Amino acid sequence: MIRATALAVLFSAAAVAQPNDSGLPLLPEQAAIDVTYIDLEVSVDIEERTIEGEVVTEARVVQPTAAVVFDLDAPFQVESVEEVAYVVGSGDEVSLPRAFERDGNRLRVDLGRTAQPGEGMRLRVSYSGAPRVAPRPPWDGGFTWTETEGGRPWVAVSCQIQGADLWWPVKDHPSDEPDSLRIALRAPSDLRAISNGVWEGREDHGDGTATERWFVSTPINNYGVSFGIGPYETVEAEYQSPLGWTQTVPFFVLPERVKDAERQMPGFLDALAFLERTFGPYAWRADGYKILHTPYLGMEHQTLVAYGSDFGENDFGFDWLHFHELAHEWWANLGSAPDWRDFWVHESFANYAEALYAEDIARRRDGDEAGRAAYLAYLQNTRRGHRNEIPIAPRESRTTQQMYQLPDGRSNGDIYSKGGWVLHTMRGLVNDDDRFFAALRSILYPTDQDEQTTDGRQARFVSAEDVIRQLSLAAGRDLGGVLEVYLRQPEVPRLALERDGTTATVRWVLPAALEGVSFDVPVEVDVAGQRVRLPMTGGASSFEAAPDLEVVLDPDGWVLFEPAE
């Protein structure tokens, strides 16, 4: 048993130097609860650039605890904390004040008792202050306070890297998602306040402000909760799913970009249909799908994709920003990393999906050969800039900052495009598209029954181990060694070509620390215009080739490697 005094010592020690980071190691008082529901009310004062909020957190106790700890950015003032309980025998609700203390970005609440496993708990926190202004949203997040071209207020929040505690008290760790969430936003009545999920109504207070209420009925990650406030107009289109359902999709957009939004909507819906065909149903049908025009580039807020791009298409015929953020509804929101060490599950899969969509568009327009050429060209465009300095998916626990940035502060794009190249390499290794895509789909939807539900039960946590397992099943062999090389350490394997008379040998060269790891990724070679797929059993394959014949390794670019020196 850990005494309350010991918990206080642990709390104080862990809170000494807390960065604005998400996914820090859980304290015992955080791990003791499983958050089940959030009721968030926020009043936004645009002139003063402040907010006032009240959050009710409902949770189930999973370990005995005398205290609960929330994350909340240090500049906020906490006015009160209450435990909302019920009087035994009457069912009447009573609010019991609870002692609390602030320490850096943490809020510790003394329950005044030992909460027992299996108990339900409701804590209400009232707070206020000036939220962090985002220095470089969405990567360096916080509030963005700006104006439209017409001089109207335009406010939005982004917090993936720094965490949702930038604007509300929260258990800021990806391993715990509330099963549902309600949010009420009070803002000037001449503006709209748009948030996640289903709109529940609007109340005009008669004082120049109005409150809009939204409800998310399915599990949602903390950074996926967001909003935008502005003079939004609504562009709507009817989505006809290839899986047989229909729904109206609204784009909340500034007045000056309405025509642009109308032009982009058909492409947005085509992207949604492609993702359903490829990875399975859009999971949040009960809560809808919306696009929100934002004053920053974008983010995958669940059911509310933030869009701040240029309303244009790339060279491959699609709006890459919208597509990337929409892909996160599958890879981030449906299949979520339980620890930020698996951040790549969010970003690599969304990045790789872009190449698949480029292939799909070109194939539908010009045929299979054009589709494959577009796919390979898209991937080559993403090949530049790999850092190869930290693992894509380390085994040790990580925070968002540790995965998104290198130790010297440079950005780490490897969880995007390098991870995408790993998936591309696995497609070539499996060498059977039906099996490969069935494996990706099964990561998110293990059974047909999972694909039929819309109540949130299909949401799941996805780790590197889950990906390795499904790809191994698709390949018909254990790929643990292959993905050990690609995911768990930073160096890219090297490929050597050795010539000895008429014998040519292609050999994998691994970092010294990986000696003995089974790495037998097949490689295609071009020998004077003739293609041969080498099995690379045991890490090498030999073949006959006259000394004067040119041998080109992996001529079409299907494998992630560097040439051996």
Write a structural description.
The radius of gyration is 26 Å and the shape is globular. The chain has an eight-stranded mixed sheet. Strands 16-17-18-20-19 form a five-stranded mixed sheet. Strands 9-10-15-12 form a four-stranded antiparallel sheet, with no helix packed on it. It has 565 residues and is an alpha+beta fold. β13 (198-204) and β14 (209-216) form a beta hairpin.
Summarize this entry quickly:
With 565 residues, the protein is of the alpha+beta class.
Number of helices: 12
* Outline type: globular
Q: Would you identify the regions where 5 or more consecutive residues have pLDDT less than 50?
A: 1-17
Strand order of the largest sheet: 5-4-8-2-1-11-14-13
Features:
single chain; 565 residues; alpha+beta; eight-stranded mixed β-sheet; 25% helix; globular; disordered N terminus
List the helices and strands and how they pair.
Blueprint: H1 4-14, H2 28-31, E1 33-45, E2 50-61, E3 65-71, E4 77-86, E5 93-97, E6 100-103, E7 106-115, E8 120-129, E9 142-147, E10 153-158, E11 180-188, E12 192-195, E13 198-204, E14 209-216, E15 227-230, E16 233-240, E17 246-253, H3 258-279, E18 290-293, E19 298-299, E20 304-307, H4 320-327, E21 335-336, H5 343-366, H6 368-382, H7 400-404, H8 417-430, H9 433-444, H10 448-452, E22 460-461, H11 464-475, H12 480-487, E23 494-500, E24 503-509, E25 523-527, E26 530-534, E27 540-544, E28 551-553, E29 562-563
Parallel strand pairs: 1-11, 17-18, 18-20, 21-22, 23-29
Antiparallel strand pairs: 1-2, 2-8, 3-7, 4-5, 4-8, 6-7, 9-10, 10-15, 11-14, 12-15, 13-14, 16-17, 19-20, 23-24, 24-27, 25-26, 25-28
Helix pairs in contact: 3-4, 4-5, 5-6, 5-8, 9-11
